[in-house]
Design brief:
single chain; 6-stranded antiparallel beta sheet; alpha+beta; Rossmann fold; 2 domains; Jelly Rolls
Length: 378
């Protein structure tokens, strides 16, 4: 055989050897764990959440990982994503306009877990499009990579709230960069209870108040199809059943006061919401936490009492953060100011304010749980 023929055969062999391919991982893969109750998973196509504070874990053996994104609905609106590899320092990225972003590059080929959180957004529409949604289309890993189910905490908690619960204006006054959902009270509660948390919180959301990003009131007695408690966003229901160990309504009421929603409307909403929630989640512990600044708390309490009088439920409780008059004045006015250490804008607690209020909320939740354990034991 001539050298020319040998060379031709060699080229033919090279062409017939398949190229090494990267590994594509869709959002339904067992390597993903999405925070409970605030993601819509569209089969294997994409995962979408309109909720700041939503997160996912991804676990596998790989050296490189790139996240696929669909940011077309965001337009020019920033969305801040925060990620960490194996518990290392967090890295923040504005994903507006991106179709993909590298999460891991040239890591050791060992078992890894990536954690990513929806940190902050420019609130536009969280209900219809949603145009402030974080939409993930999957991951691309290096050749030979494998996936495995990530480790998760032993219980699950759904937390429903308003802008103070989603960490709005926590760092400063503004939009996406001013928000940090990871430093707000839900993450403190989740850590204390060792729960995976589903944060569902929107600016100006109330018992009868529509959120500024088009989210309907938490519960509408006259038409529950126009409620937001049982939907991830418009047209997509939230799963209940035995999905949650705890369901916490946190701080809702301030928007109702600011938008002049009547006490009667708030009371009727609370009184209708609790039996509907109990029917949807028969085994969950339900915790209603009154508004931090005391607004509409009498009306909320009246709705809770009406529920308990109608159908006594020892797996539900009402928690008062019980901030002192001085604390309320310092955080929410009239004596708050730009130099105050507890707030950025006299409406939203900053990091220190969140920790101060969170410690009170946690203390009172723990007292109730301790009493529950005593009752069960006896």
């Amino acid at each position: 055989m001539t050298k020319l023929k040998i060379f031709a055969c060699f080229l033919l062999l090279l062409c017939s050897v398949p190229a090494f391919a990267s590994v594509s991982v869709n959002v339904a893969d067992a390597g993903f764990y999405f925070s409970p109750g605030n993601w819509y998973i569209s089969g294997t196509s994409y995962a979408l959440t309109p909720s700041a504070g939503a997160y996912f874990y991804f676990r596998g053996t790989f050296t490189d990982a790139t996240m696929g994104l669909d940011t077309s609905a965001l337009g020019s609106n920033p969305l801040i994503m925060r990620c960490s590899l194996d518990g290392s320092a967090w890295s923040d990225s504005d994903i507006q306009g991106l179709s993909s972003i590298q999460l891991v590059g040239s890591a050791a080929n060992t078992d890894h877990t990536v954690t990513c959180v929806y940190r902050g957004r420019t609130g536009i529409d969280s209900w219809n499009t949603p145009s402030d949604g974080w939409k993930i289309t999957g991951l691309t890993l290096n050749t030979g990579a494998t996936t495995t189910a990530p480790a998760v905490k032993p219980c699950k908690m759904l937390i429903l709230g308003d802008s103070r619960v989603e960490g709005r204006n926590l760092l400063s006054i503004g939009e996406a960069a001013a928000q940090d959902a990871t430093l707000a009270i839900p993450f403190m509660i989740g850590s204390a209870y060792r729960c995976e948390i589903g944060v569902v919180a929107y600016a100006a959301l109330g018992w009868g108040s529509i959120g500024v990003t088009n989210v309907p009131p938490l519960f509408t007695p006259s038409d529950d199809t126009n409620s937001s408690w049982n939907k991830i966003f418009s047209g997509h229901s939230r799963t209940f059943g035995t999905a949650y160990d705890y369901i916490v309504e946190l701080d809702i009421g301030g928007a109702d006061y600011n938008n002049s929603v009547s006490d009667a409307t708030v009371t009727a909403s609370v009184a209708g919401f609790l039996p509907a929630l109990r029917a949807a989640a028969p085994s969950a512990k339900i915790i209603v936490v009154l508004s931090y600044d005391g607004k509409k708390n009498s009306a909320i309490t009246a709705g809770y009492v009406a529920y308990q009088n109608s159908t006594p439920d020892r797996n539900a409780t009402l928690v008062d953060p019980a901030l002192s008059a001085t604390e309320v004045a310092l955080i929410f006015g009239p004596t708050c100011g730009t130099a105050n250490l507890l707030t950025t804008d006299c409406v939203h607690p900053n990091t220190y304010g969140q920790s101060q209020i969170g410690s009170k909320v946690l203390q009172r939740m723990q007292v109730w749980l301790a009493l529950m354990r005593i009752l069960i034991a006896n």
